[in-house]
Specification:
By secondary structure, the chain is α/β, with parallel strands linked by helices. The chain has 10 helices and 10 strands. The strands form 2 sheets. A 6-stranded mixed sheet has the order 6-7-8-3-9-10, sandwiched between helices. Strands 2-1-4-5 form a 4-stranded antiparallel sheet, with helices on one face.
Length: 296
């Protein structure tokens, strides 16, 4: 665990909101786990519109969750609110039992709380004026009291975890491929050893082979580091390949939260069923079945 310059009780499980389709068959047994994230009766209002209203969501640790929904349904807004990058209108958000929605982003203790989460943005958001190693060192320099040598060693470790060879460390982002840039962004996201990692369209802009390799990297790191990974993605191949659970947003709230298989079978929500059973969805499902079959 990283020590920071500035320095709970378990929260009860949120009751299932009316209308949410969710089965009791989960990928992991939740009975012995405490939620890592809880969103309770969330309301988000701006520009004269409710983006979220009575949104409830409970996420348990050590799994990969994908948030999907139509454009404008509030997927990115929800993530920004959990990351405290955007205020909420009503309700509450808890991280590891701590109500973070009441915090001021400028409070010293907030940095410690937010160290438990990391965000990889869609385009990577790497600093173009910094080398690869400097990009990964940056959050460690900003938020820890470690020596320069320790920070350098930790940054190298994260880059190795992300599959970067040492000949790339002193290059600039523009000098490496988009796939390598994604790996650098992921390494920087992991720099402070977060418990929860948010990924915004992680495979966007990658060719199919690079996207598949990146999916495999995410899955491996999730298992090795015991991460909770929350993705926003439209990549059906990624969803079928590595997702444990699907969260479907619609009508300003969570309409469905369950496994990928259950999502593909959910005829009660026509838009969700069509999403997984349209031409692209069927191809992705067949590809996943074939991939699994080839492992045996």
């Amino acid at each position: 665990m990283v020590m920071f310059k500035n320095s709970a009780k378990a929260a009860p499980e949120v009751p299932q909101a009316p209308g949410v389709k969710m089965s009791t068959a989960k990928v992991a047994d939740n009975s012995t786990n405490k939620p890592i994230i809880e969103v309770r009766s969330l309301g988000t209002y701006f520009s004269g519109l409710w983006v979220h209203k009575n949104l409830n969501l409970t996420i348990y640790p050590n799994r990969i969750i994908t948030i999907i929904g139509a454009s404008g349904c509030g997927k990115t807004t929800l993530v920004r609110e959990i990351l405290m990058l955007q205020s909420i209108t009503e309700g509450e958000i808890l991280l590891a039992g701590e109500e973070i929605s009441k915090y001021n982003i400028e409070d010293a203790n907030t940095k410690l709380v937010l160290s438990q989460v990391g965000m990889m943005f869609q385009q990577g958001a790497l600093f173009s004026s910094m080398t690869i190693i400097e990009n990964v060192m940056f959050p460690l320099q900003e938020y820890t009291d470690f020596s320069k040598q320790t920070i350098l060693e930790m940054a190298i470790l994260k880059l190795k975890l992300a599959g970067l060879s040492d000949d790339a460390y002193f290059k600039y982002p523009k000098e490496i491929s988009p796939g390598m840039q994604k790996r650098v962004a992921l390494a920087r996201t992991l720099a402070l050893d977060p418990k929860v990692v948010f990924l915004d369209e992680p495979t966007a802009g990658l060719d199919p082979n690079s996207a598949s390799d990146f999916d495999e990297l995410i899955s491996n790191l999730q298992q090795q580091l015991g991460l909770t990974v929350i993705m926003i993605t439209h990549d059906l191949d990624s969803i079928w390949s590595i997702s444990d659970e699907i969260v479907y947003l619609g009508e300003k709230r969570v309409l469905f939260h369950d496994t990928v298989i259950k999502a593909a079978e959910c005829k009660e929500i026509p838009e969700l069923y069509k999403y997984f059973n349209g031409p692209r969805g069927k191809l992705a499902k067949v590809a996943r079945i074939n991939s699994v079959s080839n492992q045996f």
